[in-house]
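Researcher: Can you fold this with aspartic acid in place?
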Amino acid sequence: MYRSHTCGELRATDINKEVTLSGWVQKTRDKGFMVWVDIRDRYGITQLIFDEERSSKALMEQAQKLGREFVIQAKGTVIERASKNPNIPTGDIELLVSELNILNDALLPPFTIEDETDGGEELRMQYRYLDIRRNPVKNNLIFRHKVTQEVRNYLSKQSFVEVETPYLIKSTPEGARDFVVPSRMNEGEFYALPQSPQTFKQLLMVGGMDKYFQIVKCFRDEDLRADRQPEFTQIDCEMAFVEQEDILNTFEGLTRHLLKEINGVEVDTFPRMTFDDAMRLYGNDKPDIRFGMEFGELNAVAQHKDFNVFNNAELVVGIAVPGGNTYTRKEIDKLIDWVKRPQVGALGMVYCRCNDDGTYKSSVDKFYDQDDLAKWADVTGAKAGDLICVLSGDTNKVRAQLSALRMELAERLGLRKSDEFAPLWVVDFPLLEWDEDTERYHAMHHPFTSPKPGQLELLDSKPGEVKANAYDLVLNGNEIGGGSIRIHDKSTQAIMLKHLGFSDEEARAQFGFLMDAFEYGAPPHGGIAFGLDRLVAILGGQETIRDFIAFPKNNSGRDVMIDAPAPIDNEQLQELNLKLDL
Ligand code: ASP
């Protein structure tokens, strides 16, 4: 028996008990006549004591040789500690050791195994197994486990069945590139790893499973923007015989359950906002509504003066920064530099100070008088003491720029509180999205999303205006889930694929199996998928998903610990009938 108790378990009530502990050496303190050793496992830390008077010479010597992270087993008696440590649960006791076994020695770790470590990110990733010994990482993994348990409990109680779907499949279009796997047995052919189990979960509905979920890995080969992973986890769900309302209610229930069980927070009914309103009011389809600073569109009150920058713009739009009038000229100049950075891309920024005495002072006073500026304040909701920041240009670009500024300022003002939760449904997404690069329409969600009733006819005349039965769940400015009511008949699916530029042959080759299934009695169905990594990070009050993944990849998609991806040898290439041409 390696241990009778864990290192986090013993209390004053255990005094005089004979116990055995196993774990890692956190640290040792050697006073010559006395040695203290902190032994650590997942559950906590217990102090071991060796002293000249009560321990044999051999035992003292053994203790003195222990190094950090040695794996040890200690047997002994629980005694009361002379100087108690109120900071740890085992702080009232210590273990007077009678037998010490070194189970394994250890090299000095390349960084300290402490809550605040001296190891940089790259080093910690390379030695992730050591990083996992640290409380912050360990606790995040345990936290993630709690969330997935709650998800499973909740959905199972609602009659959902967890079904596994295959990883070696054919492409599922979710807007990214596929990771592909060559098939040895089928020369020249490739599997794709699923970007999501989308088509399979729909087939499960055709199969009569009625309510499906799966906590599942998805793979998307895309350029890794900050905080994305090439493989990530979804809570993937699908339901038959449902309308949008049923899905929203079911998954609002799940989210409320998680907020309550995990965070102890009760939230009201989730507000709903159309995609168009979200873009107009926040410049963003995943608005953070923990704070206001809504956009005010200023075209009507700022155009047709002599200021041509505004006159020539498609959209003039501003936000009121609460208390922003305290910013110095220098601080405002810095803000202007910030919006001009290539990452944001604004050409400049106009501002207007709202003075305490009710007067205004703007950077464009030459063109606008006090009455004009009062209208700006009215439209943006600015009060005395605020600063109005105004951007102008092409609608889509300027919305994205002002949205970035809004988030940055809210962050600086401390308005994005990690213990506050503001969920929101964004609904009525466009069905299609224009892609500048390919000069074509793409499915905004995916090709299986149904248009709103009666809008199919618009596909030919005004494709950009067709709305979809699609919805996103947004939490604190992050999209944590998204889904749609699906097309469930072959002819609509064929029309949709045609509009997305698939020829009949291409549609048949890629999605024939789904179209065929639709001919055998497909029920109306719909679903949603949550990004588990991000959901867990947000519930955990953080925003970096890597911190909640046991073995994450870096920004170049590499696992620096196992050093993957890696070349394969010629023999393996030959077996796969592959030749490299680099
Ligand atoms: N498969 C979709 C996605 O991964 C989710 C859904 O439509 O249910 O975004």
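Model: Folded with aspartic acid in place. The mean pLDDT is 96.
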